[in-house]
Each structure stands twice: as C-alpha cells, then as structure tokens.
Amino acid sequence: MNVLNENMTEADVENVLLCFPHQPDSCPRAHRFLALKVPMYFLMLASILMTVFGNLLVIITISHFKQLHSPTNLIVLSLALVDCLLGCLVMPFSMVRWLERCWFLGDVFCKIHSSLDMTLSIVSILHLSLVSIDRYLAICEPLSYRMRVTNGTVAVCIAFIWLFSLTFSFGVVLSEVNITGLENLLMLNSCGGNCALIFNKQWGVIAALVAFFIPGTIMSSLYLKIFHVARKQAKVMSERATVRRTSCEMNVQSSEQRERKAAKTLGIVMGIFLLCWLPFFIATIIDPFLDFSTPVDVFDALVWFGYLNSTFNPLVYGFFYPRFQSAFKIIISKYVLHLRNASHLDTL
C-alpha cells in the first residue's frame, strides 16, 4: 500500500520501477535482486505444482477405487478439491502480487481474487475441522457412528461449509465492512496496481475467530479427546493381556503400535495446521492495533505459510494411511508410468 515517498529526489524517482509506467498514480514495483527473485519464483511455483498435483492425485485415487468410497474419504475428497482450487485459482496470482508488488488485473478481479482467497482458505480449514469431528465420532462413539455418519450427512455438512464460506467471504469483501473507518488511510495510500485485503480492528478479530480460532479450538479439543480414548483403550487391553498373556500378547503389541501411530498422526496434523495458519491470524488481529506497521513482505510470507497447509494436506491425509499409500502406488505405476506389471492392479 506504499506510494512514492515525497522526500525522494528526482533521480530516485526516475530509477523507481512502476506497476503502470504511463500512469502518474501508479504504485512502485518491488525492487528485488535477480539472485533472490528467481529462487523465490522457483520455490513458489514448486509449491503451487505440489498443491495442485498432490491434491489431484488424492481426488483421482478416491474417485477410482470403490473401496475408498466412505464418509471419511468423501470429506478428504472435498478437502483435496478445495486445496486444488486454491492452488489453481488463488496461489499463482498471489505469487505475482507478492514478488512484483503489483496487481495487473484491475479492481474487479482484485475483489474476486480476495473473496476466493478468503473462501477457499476458510473452506479448507473448516474441512479439517469436519475431519476431526468424523474421527472423534468413529473412535469415541463407534456403535452409533455408522448410523449417524453417512455419505448423505457428510454431503450436507460439506454443502453448508461451502455456503457459509462463500456468503461470509464475498459478503465481507463486496460490502467493504472490513475497511470501515479506514477510508482516510486508504485514500492516502491509494495507487494504481494495488490489491491488498486489510481488516479494521473489529473485522480482524471476527475473521480470525471465524476462520481459525473457533475451528482450531474444535480440532484441538477433539484430537486431545481421541488421543485420551485411544490411550485408555490400549491400557484396558494391556490389563486384559496381563491375565491372558500368551493369547493376547500379539493384540497388545498391535494396539500399542496403533496408539503410537495415531498419536504421531494427530500430532503431525495439529502441528502443521498451527504452524501454517497461527502466525497469519495473529498478525491479522494485531496489525490493525499497530497502525498496519507490519511490513508487506512479512504479511505476504505469512499468507503463503497458510497456503502451504493446502500443500501438506494430501501428504498428511494421504501418505500417512496404508490404504492410500497402496492406492497411490497403483495409480502412479499403472496410469502415470504405464508399467505392464501393474495392469492387474485394479483393487486395493
């Protein structure tokens, strides 16, 4: 949101690159050394490709194998679709905006991009919460799980998540309630080629609560409960094995392995989620109270940390589960590498 400094000399002004050189009110373009710019483009393009193709692999895998058609995997399928759309429709434009510090596509598409960015990020986070609810019911209430959680129920929940996220995001951006009271600041810093989604104090808190802290609290609470129940079940089986050690020793070892794997997976899920999104939403809340003093590059970097959650989702929810690992190997070997010896692999 910065414009040319009034104290700059004429020579400095002449050396400044502008987003739109023929417009007197153009924003200054970012001046980055080529040795830094090229690696940044390479890394960001790599993360975009990983996001798109990683989630596309999850979509193809679940769609191809009927054995994976379950309520849980329907959520994972929808999550992969959301993250794939984020990689296709949002991340490439955000990459150019960050590295060039210019928006070349006009004000209308700026609002659409900002709305889609909010929508897909919120939908992705809410899907993660839905996965945690599904896992909680499956592990902590297994007797009623199959009756309460069906493909139809999950589809309704997914539709509600989409409807809520679209309404909230487009409503906030198009109504401009997020910049109420910031008119003078925006007027002073307005220039051609700027596209920044900022929040006033009230909506910075509201957006962070709706998009992160409430879903994150739900996820953390449920995963802690799941971990507690898993440990309790393993302890019960261990006590039973003490009485019948010879016949149950293998079951106890298997239970302990499952407990360790579950704890490891849940820890990775929450660790990646918090690492990717927590810094951004903390900055979203405190930046308005600091008169928007956070450097633009820092804020954009935090946005990309959040995007990386969509890059890691197919790794966490796919590669950590044996059935997905087998399915991925079949898909890659048969349809990507065209290996003959994989032609008979049609089921898991």
From TrEMBL:
The gene is TAAR1. Its main location: membrane. GO terms for cellular component: plasma membrane. It is found in: Cell membrane. PROSITE patterns: G_PROTEIN_RECEP_F1_1, G_PROTEIN_RECEP_F1_2. It is a multi-pass membrane protein. Keywords: Cell membrane, Disulfide bond, G-protein coupled receptor, Glycoprotein, Membrane, Receptor, Transducer, Transmembrane, Transmembrane helix. Gene3D superfamilies: Rhodopsin 7-helix transmembrane proteins. Belongs to the G-protein coupled receptor 1 family. GO terms for molecular function: trace-amine receptor activity. Residues 54-317 form the G-protein coupled receptors family 1 profile domain. This is G-protein coupled receptors family 1 profile domain-containing protein. The chain crosses the membrane at residues 40-62, 74-98, 118-137, 149-174, 203-224, 266-286, 301-320. PANTHER family: HISTAMINE RECEPTOR-RELATED G-PROTEIN COUPLED RECEPTOR, TRACE AMINE-ASSOCIATED RECEPTOR 4. InterPro entries: GPCR_Rhodpsn, GPCR_Rhodpsn_7TM, TAAR, TAAR_fam.
